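Order emerges. For instance:

***
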Amino acid sequence: MKKLLIATSNPGKKIEILKALEIIIKEFELITLDNFPNISEPEETGKTFKENAVLKAKYYALETNLPTIADDGGIMIDALNGKPGVKSRRWPGYVATDEELIQITLKKMKNIKDADRQAQLVTCACLYLPKNGKHFLAEEKISGKIANKPIENYKKGYPYRALFIVHKLNIFYDQLTDSEHDKINHRVKAVRKLIKEIKKNI
């Protein structure tokens, strides 16, 4: 059976990518980084989500010699000129905790009125083929706004979702039902865009 590596160490991302690829589960063996515990993570030096997605997918594809899917994403806040963007997890200059990132966001948005709190959750997914160096990209985003306080009992590992109200439904991201999440989630949609290339090139 043909193999495809899902290159993320984030448990939540892994679940979302596997969900996106469930429609090809009978055609491909989906492998995760759990099978490669000795591979260290690459340094994310890209200036855009696209650059980091390619960097990560290429790195793991060459390390394992397997076709690889990786992604990079974060939040872009209009009132902050698109920040934190690619530095979403490292906004303060280091890998911050969920609570730190929530508090940093609230502090920076403290004096921003409700009409100007627009934001987008963005992700770029990359399929990289080690046999020929080709890669394919797909980007998706969700439009919303930053709330004045986080939702209680937010999902760990996704601090910005704790503050993100989805425009389409006018509810917190973490209030989405499983069905709504599958339809709206930007990572699921981006990865599904790559299925055609997966089938064609692997």
Observations:
- The chain has six helices and seven strands.
- The first strand starts at residue 2 and ends at 6.
- Residues 2-201 form a domain with the Maf protein fold (CATH 3.90.950.10).
